[in-house]
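Study both lines:
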Amino acid sequence: MDQGKAITMIVVGAALIVASFLFKNFYATGGIPLPIASDRQVPRWQGRLIFWVVGGMFVLGGMIFFFPNQ
């Protein structure tokens, strides 16, 4: 991974975390073969938690590039 990819990962992760606060409704996907949103609504806390976890993983992955020995 180079510096550009690390910065991109941090920006994407931060965008996911910010988006979790802006979205009001979260919907489950249709399944693995066809990842199309269904009409089944997910509770807000679960949707936000998923966005925080995925966004946090992106941010952590980007930060590891800049602080490898910490």
Q: What stands out?
A: The chain is about 60% helix and 15% strand. Residues 44-66 form the longest helix (23 residues).
